[in-house]
Specification:
Layout: E1 14-16, H1 27-32, H2 34-39, E2 47-52, E3 55-60, H3 63-71, E4 76-77, H4 80-90, H5 99-109, H6 115-134, E5 142-143, H7 144-160, H8 166-189, H9 201-227, H10 235-241, H11 253-284, H12 286-300, H13 314-326, E6 333-337, E7 341-343, E8 346-348, E9 353-356, H14 358-362, H15 381-384, H16 405-422, E10 423-427, E11 436-437, E12 441-442, E13 447-452
Parallel strand pairs: 1-2, 3-9
Antiparallel strand pairs: 2-3, 4-6, 5-13, 6-9, 7-8, 10-13, 11-12
Helix pairs in contact: 4-8, 6-7, 6-16, 7-8, 7-11, 8-9, 9-11, 11-13, 11-16, 12-13, 12-16
This protein binds protoporphyrin IX containing FE (HEM).
Protein backbone atom coordinates (compact mmCIF):
# COMPACT_ATOMS: atom_id res chain seq x y z
CA UNK A 1 0.00 0.00 0.00
CA UNK A 2 1.20 3.51 -0.68
CA UNK A 3 2.00 5.56 2.40
CA UNK A 4 1.74 9.29 2.87
CA UNK A 5 5.51 9.55 2.41
CA UNK A 6 5.67 8.00 -1.04
CA UNK A 7 5.09 10.09 -4.14
CA UNK A 8 1.60 10.02 -5.58
CA UNK A 9 1.37 7.86 -8.67
CA UNK A 10 -1.79 9.49 -9.88
CA UNK A 11 -2.93 12.98 -10.43
CA UNK A 12 -4.97 14.22 -7.50
CA UNK A 13 -7.22 17.23 -7.89
CA UNK A 14 -6.61 20.00 -5.33
CA UNK A 15 -8.97 22.89 -4.71
CA UNK A 16 -9.73 25.73 -2.36
CA UNK A 17 -13.35 25.48 -1.21
CA UNK A 18 -15.50 28.20 -2.76
CA UNK A 19 -17.39 30.80 -0.75
CA UNK A 20 -14.65 31.83 1.68
CA UNK A 21 -14.77 35.32 3.20
CA UNK A 22 -11.82 37.51 4.15
CA UNK A 23 -10.74 36.75 7.75
CA UNK A 24 -13.55 34.29 8.58
CA UNK A 25 -12.80 32.06 5.61
CA UNK A 26 -15.35 29.23 5.56
CA UNK A 27 -16.13 29.38 9.28
CA UNK A 28 -19.61 30.81 8.71
CA UNK A 29 -20.52 28.16 6.14
CA UNK A 30 -19.22 25.47 8.48
CA UNK A 31 -21.13 27.01 11.38
CA UNK A 32 -24.43 27.38 9.55
CA UNK A 33 -24.78 24.39 7.25
CA UNK A 34 -21.83 22.10 7.79
CA UNK A 35 -23.40 19.00 6.24
CA UNK A 36 -24.51 20.67 3.02
CA UNK A 37 -21.29 22.62 2.75
CA UNK A 38 -18.98 19.65 3.33
CA UNK A 39 -21.00 17.32 1.08
CA UNK A 40 -20.65 19.84 -1.77
CA UNK A 41 -16.85 19.76 -1.67
CA UNK A 42 -15.92 16.45 -3.40
CA UNK A 43 -17.18 18.03 -6.64
CA UNK A 44 -14.22 20.45 -6.46
CA UNK A 45 -11.36 18.10 -5.73
CA UNK A 46 -9.90 15.00 -4.11
CA UNK A 47 -8.25 17.19 -1.48
CA UNK A 48 -10.03 20.41 -0.62
CA UNK A 49 -8.58 23.22 1.46
CA UNK A 50 -10.80 25.27 3.73
CA UNK A 51 -10.05 28.28 5.90
CA UNK A 52 -11.51 28.24 9.36
CA UNK A 53 -10.35 31.62 10.54
CA UNK A 54 -6.65 31.98 9.77
CA UNK A 55 -5.88 28.23 9.88
CA UNK A 56 -5.88 26.19 6.67
CA UNK A 57 -7.74 22.93 7.13
CA UNK A 58 -7.73 20.03 4.67
CA UNK A 59 -10.58 17.75 3.74
CA UNK A 60 -9.58 14.61 1.82
CA UNK A 61 -12.62 13.65 -0.26
CA UNK A 62 -11.18 10.59 -1.99
CA UNK A 63 -11.27 7.32 0.01
CA UNK A 64 -7.65 6.54 -0.86
CA UNK A 65 -6.47 9.82 0.62
CA UNK A 66 -8.67 9.32 3.68
CA UNK A 67 -7.10 5.88 4.17
CA UNK A 68 -3.63 7.37 3.96
CA UNK A 69 -4.51 9.70 6.81
CA UNK A 70 -6.10 7.01 8.96
CA UNK A 71 -3.38 4.39 8.61
CA UNK A 72 -0.55 6.85 9.27
CA UNK A 73 -1.51 7.50 12.86
CA UNK A 74 1.96 8.69 13.81
CA UNK A 75 1.98 11.52 11.27
CA UNK A 76 -1.74 12.20 11.37
CA UNK A 77 -2.27 12.13 15.13
CA UNK A 78 -5.32 13.23 17.01
CA UNK A 79 -4.61 16.72 18.18
CA UNK A 80 -5.39 20.35 17.69
CA UNK A 81 -7.68 22.61 19.67
CA UNK A 82 -10.59 20.16 19.80
CA UNK A 83 -8.50 17.54 21.57
CA UNK A 84 -7.11 20.08 24.03
CA UNK A 85 -10.66 21.07 24.97
CA UNK A 86 -11.67 17.41 25.37
CA UNK A 87 -8.86 16.60 27.82
CA UNK A 88 -10.41 18.22 30.92
CA UNK A 89 -13.49 16.07 30.26
CA UNK A 90 -12.02 12.77 29.05
CA UNK A 91 -8.65 12.88 30.80
CA UNK A 92 -6.00 10.82 29.05
CA UNK A 93 -7.90 7.89 27.53
CA UNK A 94 -8.12 6.28 24.10
CA UNK A 95 -9.61 9.32 22.38
CA UNK A 96 -7.33 12.00 23.85
CA UNK A 97 -4.00 10.12 24.05
CA UNK A 98 -1.31 10.86 21.51
CA UNK A 99 0.06 8.27 19.11
CA UNK A 100 2.76 6.62 21.24
CA UNK A 101 0.66 6.33 24.38
CA UNK A 102 -2.41 5.34 22.39
CA UNK A 103 -0.73 2.12 21.25
CA UNK A 104 -0.09 1.10 24.86
CA UNK A 105 -3.61 2.06 25.95
CA UNK A 106 -5.19 0.20 23.06
CA UNK A 107 -3.31 -3.00 24.00
CA UNK A 108 -4.70 -2.66 27.51
CA UNK A 109 -8.31 -1.85 26.62
CA UNK A 110 -8.69 -4.23 23.66
CA UNK A 111 -9.18 -7.39 25.81
CA UNK A 112 -12.37 -5.83 27.23
CA UNK A 113 -13.83 -5.98 23.70
CA UNK A 114 -12.80 -9.52 22.70
CA UNK A 115 -15.51 -11.74 21.21
CA UNK A 116 -15.87 -13.84 24.37
CA UNK A 117 -16.56 -10.75 26.45
CA UNK A 118 -19.00 -9.30 23.92
CA UNK A 119 -20.95 -12.55 24.34
CA UNK A 120 -21.25 -11.75 28.06
CA UNK A 121 -22.23 -8.13 27.48
CA UNK A 122 -24.82 -9.44 25.01
CA UNK A 123 -26.71 -10.99 27.93
CA UNK A 124 -27.21 -7.44 29.24
CA UNK A 125 -28.23 -6.31 25.75
CA UNK A 126 -30.78 -9.13 25.41
CA UNK A 127 -32.37 -8.25 28.75
CA UNK A 128 -32.45 -4.51 28.21
CA UNK A 129 -33.77 -4.74 24.63
CA UNK A 130 -36.53 -7.06 25.79
CA UNK A 131 -37.37 -4.69 28.66
CA UNK A 132 -37.48 -1.72 26.26
CA UNK A 133 -39.71 -3.50 23.77
CA UNK A 134 -42.23 -4.50 26.45
CA UNK A 135 -42.37 -1.10 28.16
CA UNK A 136 -44.40 0.83 25.59
CA UNK A 137 -48.16 1.30 25.43
CA UNK A 138 -49.89 0.57 22.15
CA UNK A 139 -50.56 3.69 20.07
CA UNK A 140 -49.19 6.08 22.70
CA UNK A 141 -46.58 8.25 20.91
CA UNK A 142 -43.01 7.99 22.12
CA UNK A 143 -39.92 10.09 21.50
CA UNK A 144 -37.75 7.52 19.74
CA UNK A 145 -34.54 9.53 20.37
CA UNK A 146 -35.23 9.61 24.08
CA UNK A 147 -36.06 5.89 24.22
CA UNK A 148 -32.98 4.85 22.25
CA UNK A 149 -30.71 7.00 24.42
CA UNK A 150 -32.22 5.50 27.57
CA UNK A 151 -31.74 2.00 26.13
CA UNK A 152 -28.09 2.45 25.11
CA UNK A 153 -27.32 4.19 28.42
CA UNK A 154 -28.71 1.19 30.32
CA UNK A 155 -26.87 -1.32 28.13
CA UNK A 156 -23.53 0.49 28.33
CA UNK A 157 -23.77 1.25 32.06
CA UNK A 158 -24.63 -2.36 32.89
CA UNK A 159 -21.94 -3.76 30.57
CA UNK A 160 -19.41 -1.48 32.26
CA UNK A 161 -20.55 -2.04 35.84
CA UNK A 162 -22.44 -5.22 36.61
CA UNK A 163 -22.89 -4.40 40.29
CA UNK A 164 -25.85 -3.84 42.57
CA UNK A 165 -25.17 -0.15 42.11
CA UNK A 166 -25.97 -0.43 38.42
CA UNK A 167 -29.55 0.97 38.66
CA UNK A 168 -28.24 4.05 40.45
CA UNK A 169 -25.44 4.37 37.89
CA UNK A 170 -27.93 4.13 35.02
CA UNK A 171 -30.09 6.94 36.41
CA UNK A 172 -27.06 9.13 37.02
CA UNK A 173 -25.62 8.49 33.56
CA UNK A 174 -28.97 9.12 31.88
CA UNK A 175 -29.23 12.45 33.65
CA UNK A 176 -25.64 13.66 33.31
CA UNK A 177 -24.46 12.32 29.95
CA UNK A 178 -26.62 14.45 27.60
CA UNK A 179 -25.62 17.60 29.54
CA UNK A 180 -21.91 16.72 29.33
CA UNK A 181 -22.11 15.79 25.63
CA UNK A 182 -23.92 19.03 24.80
CA UNK A 183 -21.50 21.14 26.84
CA UNK A 184 -18.45 19.40 25.40
CA UNK A 185 -19.71 20.16 21.92
CA UNK A 186 -20.36 23.84 22.75
CA UNK A 187 -16.81 24.12 24.05
CA UNK A 188 -15.34 22.27 21.07
CA UNK A 189 -16.84 24.68 18.54
CA UNK A 190 -16.16 27.86 20.54
CA UNK A 191 -13.25 29.48 18.68
CA UNK A 192 -12.52 31.91 21.53
CA UNK A 193 -12.26 29.32 24.30
CA UNK A 194 -13.97 31.87 26.56
CA UNK A 195 -17.49 30.46 26.62
CA UNK A 196 -16.66 27.81 29.20
CA UNK A 197 -15.33 30.47 31.57
CA UNK A 198 -18.46 32.64 31.63
CA UNK A 199 -20.83 32.38 34.64
CA UNK A 200 -23.70 30.96 32.56
CA UNK A 201 -26.41 28.62 33.84
CA UNK A 202 -25.48 26.17 31.05
CA UNK A 203 -21.86 26.11 32.27
CA UNK A 204 -22.96 25.47 35.85
CA UNK A 205 -25.17 22.59 34.69
CA UNK A 206 -22.27 21.20 32.69
CA UNK A 207 -19.80 21.47 35.60
CA UNK A 208 -22.29 19.82 37.94
CA UNK A 209 -23.04 16.96 35.53
CA UNK A 210 -19.34 16.36 34.85
CA UNK A 211 -18.55 16.32 38.58
CA UNK A 212 -21.36 13.83 39.18
CA UNK A 213 -20.15 11.54 36.39
CA UNK A 214 -16.60 11.68 37.71
CA UNK A 215 -17.82 10.87 41.23
CA UNK A 216 -19.91 8.00 39.93
CA UNK A 217 -16.95 6.46 38.12
CA UNK A 218 -14.77 6.87 41.23
CA UNK A 219 -17.43 5.15 43.34
CA UNK A 220 -17.63 2.27 40.88
CA UNK A 221 -13.86 1.86 40.96
CA UNK A 222 -13.73 1.99 44.79
CA UNK A 223 -16.58 -0.49 44.99
CA UNK A 224 -14.86 -2.90 42.61
CA UNK A 225 -11.63 -2.76 44.58
CA UNK A 226 -13.34 -3.13 47.96
CA UNK A 227 -15.39 -6.13 46.83
CA UNK A 228 -12.29 -7.87 45.52
CA UNK A 229 -14.39 -10.51 43.76
CA UNK A 230 -12.33 -10.91 40.58
CA UNK A 231 -13.86 -11.03 37.12
CA UNK A 232 -17.51 -10.02 37.17
CA UNK A 233 -17.71 -10.32 33.40
CA UNK A 234 -18.07 -6.55 33.00
CA UNK A 235 -15.85 -4.02 31.24
CA UNK A 236 -14.51 -2.66 34.52
CA UNK A 237 -13.19 -6.10 35.53
CA UNK A 238 -11.46 -6.48 32.16
CA UNK A 239 -9.80 -3.07 32.56
CA UNK A 240 -8.52 -3.99 36.02
CA UNK A 241 -7.26 -7.37 34.80
CA UNK A 242 -5.52 -5.97 31.70
CA UNK A 243 -1.78 -6.44 31.53
CA UNK A 244 0.38 -5.12 28.71
CA UNK A 245 2.00 -8.01 26.77
CA UNK A 246 4.96 -5.83 25.88
CA UNK A 247 5.72 -4.17 29.20
CA UNK A 248 3.77 -6.19 31.77
CA UNK A 249 2.27 -2.88 32.94
CA UNK A 250 -1.30 -2.43 34.15
CA UNK A 251 -3.51 0.65 34.32
CA UNK A 252 -3.67 2.98 37.31
CA UNK A 253 -7.05 3.86 38.86
CA UNK A 254 -6.89 7.23 37.12
CA UNK A 255 -6.24 5.61 33.75
CA UNK A 256 -9.15 3.23 34.27
CA UNK A 257 -11.30 6.19 35.25
CA UNK A 258 -10.39 8.01 32.04
CA UNK A 259 -11.09 4.94 29.89
CA UNK A 260 -14.51 4.50 31.51
CA UNK A 261 -15.40 8.16 30.91
CA UNK A 262 -14.23 7.78 27.30
CA UNK A 263 -16.37 4.68 26.78
CA UNK A 264 -19.44 6.38 28.23
CA UNK A 265 -19.01 9.42 26.03
CA UNK A 266 -18.12 7.48 22.88
CA UNK A 267 -20.53 4.56 23.13
CA UNK A 268 -23.96 5.74 24.23
CA UNK A 269 -25.08 8.67 22.09
CA UNK A 270 -23.48 7.29 18.91
CA UNK A 271 -25.41 4.02 19.00
CA UNK A 272 -28.62 5.74 20.11
CA UNK A 273 -28.45 8.27 17.25
CA UNK A 274 -27.94 5.59 14.62
CA UNK A 275 -30.82 3.53 16.03
CA UNK A 276 -33.08 6.59 15.96
CA UNK A 277 -32.18 7.21 12.33
CA UNK A 278 -32.87 3.56 11.53
CA UNK A 279 -36.44 3.89 12.88
CA UNK A 280 -36.91 7.16 11.03
CA UNK A 281 -35.75 5.61 7.75
CA UNK A 282 -37.84 2.46 8.22
CA UNK A 283 -40.89 4.65 8.87
CA UNK A 284 -40.45 6.22 5.44
CA UNK A 285 -39.65 2.99 3.60
CA UNK A 286 -42.50 0.48 3.97
CA UNK A 287 -40.77 -2.13 1.76
CA UNK A 288 -37.66 -2.15 3.94
CA UNK A 289 -39.85 -2.21 7.04
CA UNK A 290 -41.79 -5.22 5.66
CA UNK A 291 -38.52 -7.04 4.86
CA UNK A 292 -37.30 -6.39 8.42
CA UNK A 293 -40.54 -7.72 9.91
CA UNK A 294 -40.38 -10.79 7.67
CA UNK A 295 -36.82 -11.60 8.75
CA UNK A 296 -37.49 -11.06 12.44
CA UNK A 297 -40.63 -13.24 12.29
CA UNK A 298 -38.80 -16.00 10.45
CA UNK A 299 -35.70 -16.05 12.65
CA UNK A 300 -37.37 -15.45 16.00
CA UNK A 301 -40.87 -16.84 15.53
CA UNK A 302 -42.28 -14.43 18.13
CA UNK A 303 -39.65 -14.88 20.85
CA UNK A 304 -37.09 -12.32 22.05
CA UNK A 305 -33.79 -12.18 20.11
CA UNK A 306 -30.67 -13.80 21.57
CA UNK A 307 -27.02 -13.17 20.84
CA UNK A 308 -26.86 -16.46 18.91
CA UNK A 309 -29.49 -15.09 16.49
CA UNK A 310 -27.38 -12.12 15.42
CA UNK A 311 -25.65 -13.84 12.44
CA UNK A 312 -29.05 -14.87 11.06
CA UNK A 313 -30.48 -11.35 11.44
CA UNK A 314 -28.70 -10.33 8.26
CA UNK A 315 -31.31 -7.92 6.89
CA UNK A 316 -31.59 -6.28 10.33
CA UNK A 317 -27.83 -5.69 10.23
CA UNK A 318 -28.08 -4.29 6.71
CA UNK A 319 -30.73 -1.83 7.89
CA UNK A 320 -28.39 -0.60 10.60
CA UNK A 321 -25.40 -0.44 8.23
CA UNK A 322 -27.45 1.65 5.82
CA UNK A 323 -28.61 3.98 8.62
CA UNK A 324 -24.92 4.39 9.54
CA UNK A 325 -24.15 5.25 5.92
CA UNK A 326 -26.81 7.94 5.59
CA UNK A 327 -26.44 9.39 9.08
CA UNK A 328 -23.01 8.40 10.44
CA UNK A 329 -23.02 9.49 14.11
CA UNK A 330 -19.30 10.33 13.88
CA UNK A 331 -19.95 12.63 10.91
CA UNK A 332 -16.67 14.52 11.37
CA UNK A 333 -13.43 13.87 13.21
CA UNK A 334 -10.02 15.40 12.98
CA UNK A 335 -6.32 14.68 12.77
CA UNK A 336 -3.35 17.03 13.08
CA UNK A 337 -0.02 16.49 11.32
CA UNK A 338 2.91 15.95 13.70
CA UNK A 339 5.46 16.82 10.99
CA UNK A 340 5.55 18.16 7.45
CA UNK A 341 4.13 15.59 5.07
CA UNK A 342 2.51 15.21 1.69
CA UNK A 343 -1.03 14.19 0.96
CA UNK A 344 -2.20 13.60 -2.58
CA UNK A 345 0.85 15.49 -3.85
CA UNK A 346 0.10 18.53 -1.68
CA UNK A 347 2.60 19.59 0.97
CA UNK A 348 1.04 19.88 4.42
CA UNK A 349 2.99 21.85 7.02
CA UNK A 350 3.36 20.50 10.58
CA UNK A 351 0.27 21.10 12.77
CA UNK A 352 -2.10 21.12 9.78
CA UNK A 353 -5.62 20.10 10.66
CA UNK A 354 -7.19 17.37 8.52
CA UNK A 355 -10.93 16.73 8.63
CA UNK A 356 -12.27 13.23 8.08
CA UNK A 357 -15.95 13.15 7.25
CA UNK A 358 -17.69 9.81 6.81
CA UNK A 359 -20.80 11.85 5.94
CA UNK A 360 -19.04 13.35 2.91
CA UNK A 361 -17.82 9.96 1.64
CA UNK A 362 -21.12 8.19 2.32
CA UNK A 363 -23.12 10.75 0.31
CA UNK A 364 -20.75 10.99 -2.65
CA UNK A 365 -22.53 9.72 -5.82
CA UNK A 366 -19.15 8.65 -7.22
CA UNK A 367 -18.86 6.16 -4.35
CA UNK A 368 -22.47 5.15 -3.66
CA UNK A 369 -24.96 5.07 -6.54
CA UNK A 370 -28.13 7.00 -5.72
CA UNK A 371 -26.58 8.00 -2.38
CA UNK A 372 -29.68 9.66 -0.90
CA UNK A 373 -31.82 6.54 -1.16
CA UNK A 374 -32.21 4.16 1.78
CA UNK A 375 -31.31 0.78 0.30
CA UNK A 376 -30.25 -1.78 2.94
CA UNK A 377 -29.61 -4.32 0.20
CA UNK A 378 -26.62 -2.35 -1.02
CA UNK A 379 -24.93 -4.25 1.84
CA UNK A 380 -25.73 -7.69 0.38
CA UNK A 381 -22.33 -9.38 0.04
CA UNK A 382 -22.51 -9.47 -3.76
CA UNK A 383 -23.21 -5.72 -3.92
CA UNK A 384 -21.08 -4.62 -0.96
CA UNK A 385 -17.95 -5.99 -2.63
CA UNK A 386 -18.24 -3.18 -5.21
CA UNK A 387 -17.99 -0.46 -2.56
CA UNK A 388 -14.59 1.21 -2.89
CA UNK A 389 -12.14 0.40 -0.11
CA UNK A 390 -12.29 3.08 2.55
CA UNK A 391 -15.51 4.65 1.21
CA UNK A 392 -17.61 3.40 4.14
CA UNK A 393 -16.21 4.56 7.45
CA UNK A 394 -18.90 4.73 10.13
CA UNK A 395 -16.39 3.37 12.67
CA UNK A 396 -13.32 5.17 11.30
CA UNK A 397 -10.22 3.18 10.41
CA UNK A 398 -6.59 2.44 11.17
CA UNK A 399 -5.29 1.99 14.69
CA UNK A 400 -7.90 4.31 16.14
CA UNK A 401 -10.85 2.49 14.60
CA UNK A 402 -13.79 2.34 16.99
CA UNK A 403 -13.05 -0.20 19.71
CA UNK A 404 -16.79 -0.63 20.29
CA UNK A 405 -17.79 -1.42 16.69
CA UNK A 406 -18.85 -5.02 17.37
CA UNK A 407 -20.42 -4.02 20.68
CA UNK A 408 -22.44 -1.31 18.91
CA UNK A 409 -23.46 -3.50 15.95
CA UNK A 410 -24.55 -6.32 18.28
CA UNK A 411 -26.50 -3.98 20.53
CA UNK A 412 -28.23 -2.29 17.59
CA UNK A 413 -29.14 -5.59 15.88
CA UNK A 414 -30.68 -6.94 19.07
CA UNK A 415 -32.53 -3.66 19.71
CA UNK A 416 -33.97 -3.46 16.18
CA UNK A 417 -35.01 -7.11 16.21
CA UNK A 418 -36.55 -7.00 19.71
CA UNK A 419 -38.61 -3.90 18.89
CA UNK A 420 -39.56 -4.90 15.32
CA UNK A 421 -40.72 -8.28 16.65
CA UNK A 422 -43.46 -6.54 18.61
CA UNK A 423 -44.06 -3.13 17.09
CA UNK A 424 -44.61 -1.34 13.82
CA UNK A 425 -43.19 2.13 14.37
CA UNK A 426 -45.63 4.48 12.65
CA UNK A 427 -44.40 7.96 11.69
CA UNK A 428 -46.54 10.91 12.74
CA UNK A 429 -47.57 12.72 9.54
CA UNK A 430 -45.98 16.12 9.10
CA UNK A 431 -43.03 15.34 11.40
CA UNK A 432 -40.02 17.21 10.12
CA UNK A 433 -36.54 16.09 11.08
CA UNK A 434 -33.39 18.03 10.50
CA UNK A 435 -30.08 16.25 11.15
CA UNK A 436 -28.22 18.01 13.95
CA UNK A 437 -24.51 17.84 13.36
CA UNK A 438 -23.27 18.10 16.93
CA UNK A 439 -21.00 15.75 18.84
CA UNK A 440 -22.97 13.02 17.06
CA UNK A 441 -25.23 13.43 14.05
CA UNK A 442 -28.47 13.31 16.01
CA UNK A 443 -32.09 13.51 14.88
CA UNK A 444 -33.38 15.56 17.81
CA UNK A 445 -36.78 14.53 19.21
CA UNK A 446 -38.53 12.04 16.91
CA UNK A 447 -42.10 11.17 17.83
CA UNK A 448 -43.46 7.91 16.43
CA UNK A 449 -46.41 5.71 17.31
CA UNK A 450 -45.76 2.09 18.31
CA UNK A 451 -48.50 -0.14 16.93
CA UNK A 452 -48.68 -3.76 18.03
CA UNK A 453 -47.89 -6.15 15.17
C1 LIG B 1 -22.89 2.85 16.09
C2 LIG B 1 -22.16 3.19 17.09
C3 LIG B 1 -20.79 3.80 17.01
C4 LIG B 1 -20.21 4.58 16.05
C5 LIG B 1 -20.83 5.05 14.75
C6 LIG B 1 -18.86 4.86 16.48
C7 LIG B 1 -17.94 5.58 15.74
C8 LIG B 1 -16.62 5.76 16.09
C9 LIG B 1 -15.60 6.34 15.26
C10 LIG B 1 -15.79 6.89 13.86
C11 LIG B 1 -14.43 6.32 15.96
C12 LIG B 1 -13.06 6.80 15.47
C13 LIG B 1 -12.84 8.25 15.75
C14 LIG B 1 -11.46 8.72 15.29
O1 LIG B 1 -10.80 8.03 14.53
O2 LIG B 1 -11.05 9.81 15.70
C15 LIG B 1 -14.72 5.73 17.24
C16 LIG B 1 -13.78 5.57 18.24
C17 LIG B 1 -14.10 5.05 19.47
N1 LIG B 1 -15.29 4.49 19.86
FE1 LIG B 1 -16.93 4.28 18.75
N2 LIG B 1 -18.67 4.29 17.70
C18 LIG B 1 -19.80 3.62 18.06
C19 LIG B 1 -20.02 2.87 19.19
C20 LIG B 1 -19.12 2.73 20.21
C21 LIG B 1 -19.33 1.95 21.40
C22 LIG B 1 -20.59 1.13 21.67
C23 LIG B 1 -18.24 2.12 22.18
C24 LIG B 1 -17.92 1.54 23.54
C25 LIG B 1 -18.72 0.82 24.25
C26 LIG B 1 -17.32 3.00 21.47
C27 LIG B 1 -16.10 3.42 21.93
C28 LIG B 1 -15.16 4.08 21.16
C29 LIG B 1 -13.83 4.42 21.64
C30 LIG B 1 -13.26 4.15 23.03
C31 LIG B 1 -13.16 5.02 20.58
C32 LIG B 1 -11.71 5.51 20.54
C33 LIG B 1 -10.89 4.34 20.01
C34 LIG B 1 -9.41 4.61 19.91
O3 LIG B 1 -9.01 5.76 19.63
O4 LIG B 1 -8.64 3.66 20.08
N3 LIG B 1 -17.89 3.34 20.27
N4 LIG B 1 -16.04 5.38 17.30
Amino acid sequence: MRTAQQPATRHWRHALAPGGLPLAGHALLMGRKPLQFLASLPAYGDLVELRLGPRPVFLPCHPELVQQVLVNARIYDTGGPVKEKAKPILGNGLITSDWADHRRQRRLVQPAFQAARIATYAEVMERECEAESTAWTARRPIDVSHEMLALTARVTARALFSTDMAPHAVAEIQHCLPIVVEGAYRQAIDPTGLLAKLPLAANRRFDDALTRLNQLIDRMIDDYKAADDGDRGDVLSALFAAQDDETGGTMSDQEIHDQVMTLLLAGIETTASALTWAWFLLGRNPRAEAALHAEVDEVLGGRAPRYADVPRLAYTQRVFSEALRLFPPAWLFTRTTTEATELGGRRLPPASDVLISPYVLHRDPALFPDPESFDPDRWLPERAKDVARGAYLPFGGGSRKCIGDVFGMTEATLALAAIAGRWRMRPIPGTKIRPRPQMSLTAGPLRMIPEPR
